[in-house]
Model the fold of this input.
Amino acid sequence: MTNHPQQPGKYDAVLGGQNQTSEFAAVLGGIEGVKLRLSNPDPQVRIASLQQALNYGEMGLDLVIRALNDESKEVKNVAYGLLETRIEAKVKEALIIFEDAQLKSAVGMDYRTLRDLLKAGKWEEADEETARVMLAVAKREKEGSFGIKDIDNFPCTDLRTIDQLWVKYSDGKFGFSVQKRIYQGLGGTREYNQEIWKKFGDKVGWRKGGNWLYYDEITFDKKAPEGYVPRWLWMCKWGVWVGSSSRFLWVSSLASRLVNCNI
Done:
């Protein structure tokens, strides 16, 4: 504690810019000042206060944990980033609850297995789990494949959860939204264009030497090209080989669905 209550301490923030005179400046001292700023309606003010909160021991840590429930997604993500390397039991418990809450589904699908596989970097198993849960959500387990209408009507909530998991745990390298960006960047639309489709296959590593790869030729590795996975159904173990034109329809339809779902 400082001997001068009107002077800012080591971790205190001061209201009032450089153009303000000292008589108009107000010291927001200690944990109470952090609490006040964390109630500010501006998310950027709350974010700036999170790191400072950790300077105030258990009370500050509790404030960061509480921020996992903030109304702002950005604030939540910053709080998560500050907590994910902590070892305290209450932090680990809070993160488990937070992570589970992010796995939203319109049909009650459990995405914890997919999350855990991706978190462990088990890309092949995660790819198979992606196929499994997507078939289950669409009620296409018996058929083992999708019709175009199934993709067009796939729940946005579930599609967003699956994509966010892939993007998060691959550091932005894999995921449906990544594939969509690449496909559309090449000029791809819902209309079939053989040259664009081949370029897409070459770009994401699904073709080699001018030929489309079979499932057993796939190398699941984080060093793979951007957008390499998920491959989910079009070259998988679930059934017979699917022709290139059918795979194109799945990808182009999925890209359209992502746009409609704002993903």
